[in-house]
Amino acid sequence: MERNELTLDIQNLEKTYKGNVEAVCGIDVKLEKQRIYALLGPNGAGKTTVLKSILGLINYSGSILVLGRPVDEVREMISFVPEEKNLYENLNIEETLKLIRRISSRFDENQARNYIAHYKLPCTKKIRTFSNGMKSAMYISLALSADADFYILDEPTWGLDPIMRDDTLEFIREKVIAGKTVLYTSHIIPEVEKIADEFFIMINGKVKYSGDLDGIKEKYRIVKMPFDKKELASCTDCLAAAKELNRLSIIVENSEATERFYKTDEATISIPDLEEFFQILVRSENRNSR
Amino acid sequence: MWFDIDIRSPLPIYDQIKRGVREEILKEKLKEGDPLPSIREMASQIRVNPNTVARAYRELEMEGLIMARPGLGYIVVSDREQVRDSVFESLSTELREPILRLKKSGISLERLLEVIEKIWKEMN
Fold first, then answer.
1. Minimal-distance CA residue of chain B relative to A167
2. CATH number, domain B13-122, options 3.40.1350.10, 1.10.230.10, 3.40.50.300, 1.10.10.10
3. Which residues, numbered 57 to 96 in chain B, qualify as contacts with chain A under a Cβ-Cβ cut-off of 8 Å?
């Protein structure tokens, strides 16, 4: 395999559901090897549709190559945690491990047992009795124990407590240190901030922003001031501008923030964190699409 | 080698790694000719992604502080004298916003310097 080959190459992906509901409107996504990517967006932005398209679970138009090939040829190189953490409810962990051992040749059972022990999951209780967090932990234990090149994780930390969530992020990071590639979605933005090399922010079926955290810290500033209609209307050249309660929040390029707002008494200028950046972008987009 | 990475810091993460390495050289914990941890080792020690460590190392190499030896990793090729000046670059990024806030509220430079001096002296 060529060294610079993209782990994922999506070109002009479009998906329209029945009744002409356009879920994804022509997006391009390129993922390089050995990085962690986060796909972010409000509910209904089209994230799960993108993941399902990558996995070939739904029809779509456009081109998707995984590890340089159509997904059907490299399916065993992908490990997937779906949004719904459905396991065989009537089995316990021991029985589940036995089943997976039988059907998968790329499964490292010892590794799985280490994760399961770390999450302190009860091995002899039926999975039906597990909480949501325990089901997530079980799913992660299995998915990260598959010897894959590309891990696709849809809300992998759903229901986990903060300690287990942090440990899970480190398990994911270990995969990337070992040379793997990860694409994941989460609603918990501080989590994304900790772990992702790059993120894609999807809103209404389009990728509105892609980049890395260091990039937004260097390139942008968030300016906040009391809400003012005229000021909002004049924000035509900024990345995003939104009303947040009685406040006007704007994302502008660093140099422009200096010129335009440093002298305004009521304006505060701060270096963006991902949570704020995401919120202003989404609110701004909602305002524009109304 | 270990240093703390603060995701919320105004300083980009790769810059914090660069600063960490510089400070090790300043403290003479890293001397000319010493090897740096590999990208993987550094990534798991300070809990950042290898891609970010690689970027920091690349930039430190361009600045002439470290050098890659093919197949062997990076070694330090500078001493504390050479590193001293570059420390101030990241410092000004970090101080920019708080100083601006003070300036806007009408605090004079003299007053600010007095505060710095006071803090400095308290540390002795």
1. B47
2. 1.10.10.10
3. none
Contact call for A177 and B47, based on CB within 8 A: no
**B12-60 residue pLDDT tens:** 999 999 999 999 999 999 999 999 999 999 999 999 999 999 999 999 9
Q: Residue A34 is nearest to which of B12, B13, B51, comparing CB atoms? A: B51
Provide the β-strand partners of residue B35.
Answer: B75
User: Is ipTM over 0.90?
Assistant: no
Distance between CA atoms of residues A136 and A35, nearest Å? 22
The structure's pTM equals 0.87
Which sequence spans correspond to the domains of chain B? 13-122
Cβ contact B103:B113 at 8 Å: no
CA dist A185 and A154 (Å) reads: 5
Residues 6+ apart with CB under 8 A from A143: A79, A80, A81, A151, A153, A156
Tally C-beta pairs within 8 A across A and B. Answer: 46
- Looking at residue B98, its amino acid is P
* Six token digits for residue A112: 């799985």
Question: Chain A residue with minimal CA distance to B106?
Answer: A265
What are φ and ψ of residue A126, in 5° steps?
-65, 145
